[in-house]
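**User:**
My hope is that you can spare some time for a protein that puzzles me. This is the protein in question:
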Amino acid sequence: MTDNIFWLGHDSFRLKGEKVVYVDPWKLASGAEKADVILVTHEHYDHYSEDDIAKISRADTVVVAPASVAAKRAGKTTVVKPGDKVSVAGIAIEAVPAYNTNKKFHPQSAGHVGYIVTLNGKRIYHSGDTDLIPEMTRIKADIALLPVSGTYVMTAVEAAEAANTIQPALAIPMHYGDPEVVGSRSDAEEFKRRARVPVEILEKSKN
C-alpha cells in the first residue's frame, strides 16, 4: 500500500499515482523528481520552502496552499482554505482543518490546512501540523500521515488516538527525524505500539 508513498523526512512526502504530488517539500535531494502538483500546508519554514519548490517545478507545476503561503510567494498559487475541494491536474484534493487546541503555534484562525489527495483510487490524508481535533471524526481516508512528535503537534499518544478515530487501512507517522525540529524515531515507534490500526514506519527516501 506504500509503493507510491515516499517519505522525504520530517513532514515532506512525494505521492505517486496518475500524477506526482509533493506535500511540504523541504530539504529535497538534488535531482528530485519533478512535480505535477505541490501542496503546502502552512507558511512555517519547515513546510514552505520556495527553494525546494523551485527544485521540483516545471512550467506547468501547480502549487496549492493557504493564503498565508500565497502572501509570501511571487509565483502563482491556487489558494485553498479548510473545507475546499479542488481538482488540480486532474487530481481530487480536499483541504481540511489543521490547528492546535492547547498550544499557540498553529491557531485555528490562521487557516492552516491538511490535505486529502486521491491517487490510484486511494484517499491519502496528510494532516499538516495539527493536534487531535474534532474534525478528524469526519475524515475518510485509506492512508493517514500523522505527526507524532509533540511540542508543536500531537504527541505519539494523541496521534494514536487520531488514527483510532479515523480508522484508515494504514497510518504512517511523520514530523520527526530532522535535527532542526523535535521528534525522533522513538516517537514513531510509540505511535505504532499504541495505534489500533496497521502502522508502517517508512525509511527516508534517498530522493
